[in-house]
Amino acid sequence: xxxxxxxxxxxxxxxxxxxxxxxxxxxxxxxxxxxxxxxxxxxxxxxxxxxxxxxxxxxxxxxxxxxxxxxxxxxxxxxxxxxxxxxxxxxxxxxxxxxxxxxxxxxxxxxxxxxxxxxxxxxxxxxxxxxxxxxxxxxxxxxxxxxxxxxxxxxxxxxxxxxxxxxxxxxxxxxxxxxxxxxxxxxxxxxxxxxxxxxxxxxxxxxxxxxxxxxxxxxxxxxxxxxxxxxxxxxxxxxxxxxxxxxxxxxxxxxxxxxxxxxxxxxxxxxxxxxxxxxxxxxxxxxxxxxxxxxxxxxxxxxxxxxxxxxxxxxxxxxxxxxxxxxxxxxxxxxxxxxxxx
Length: 342
Known about the structure:
The chain is mainly α. It is built from 17 helices and three strands. Strands 1-2-3 form a three-stranded antiparallel beta sheet, with no helix packed on it. Pfam families: Phage_int_SAM_5, Phage_integrase.
C-alpha cells in the first residue's frame, strides 16, 4: 500500500520491458568471450577468425532474406536453418561440409541465447550437422622422390622445400610458420628433435627429424629472412604458399593439387602408416587427442596390404610353400581328407 500511495508501484508496472536481443548481438557476445580467451592463450587466433567469417556470412544471408543486416532472436525460426543452408550452397557456392560449419556456429549462438534466457527455446535444437568425409589425398613415394629431385627457381624452391618438410613431419601450415630455431634440441638418441605446442590442443609434442627435413633445416641456417625473423624456414603468407604450390605440382606433373593438407596426409599415410608405424604413434605425432581422428588417415593401400601379407607368408610358410607350424599342418591334413572335404 505504501508503494502504491507513493507512486512507486505505478512506475514499476509501467516500466518498459528490456529491448529484445538480436542474432548478431548474440554473436558479438560469443566473439568477445572468445577474444578474451585468445588474449590469455586459451584459444587459437584462427578460431576467432572463423567466427568473424561466420558473422559476415550471417549478415549477407539476413540482408538477402530480410533486407536487413540483423534480426531479433524471436524472428529466428526452425525453417531458417534450411534457408541458410540453401543460401550458402547456391548464392555463395560453398561446399556442404563448409556450410555445415557455419550452421553449427549459428546453432551454438542460439544455444547461448537460450541459456542466457534471451530466448524461450532454441528453435534449432533439433538440427544436427552432417558431414561427408572427403577423400584424404596424398602423394605416393615416387611422387615425393620426383618432387625432391626437380630443380626450381628460388621462388618455387623455397615452397617445395617447405612442402617436403611438412610431408616428413606432419605439421600444419601455421605450425611450420611458427617454428623457431630454439625449438630444435638434441635428444637422448643423439639426433635432432623439434618440440612444439600444438595449436588446437596446446599439448607439447616432440618429433625426431628424419634426414630430409633435417637437411632442409640446414639449408636455411644462413637465410637472411630466417635470421631476421628467428624462424626455422622461410614461410611467408598462406595465399602465396598455396598459389606457388600449384605451380610446383604442375611442373612435376603431379595429379593431386598440392596443399598443406596434402602434405599432412602424406606424412600420415605414405610416410608412416604404409611403412608399419602404429596408428597410436601416428596419432601422437599428428597431435591428435582422439585416435578416431587419426583413423581418417588410415587409408589401407595396396602396398600396405602387400607388405602385411608378405610378412604373414614368411611367418607361416617356408620358401617351398609348406606350413611351418605343426598344428597348422595337422589341420591341413584334415582338410585334404575326402571324408570331410567341403
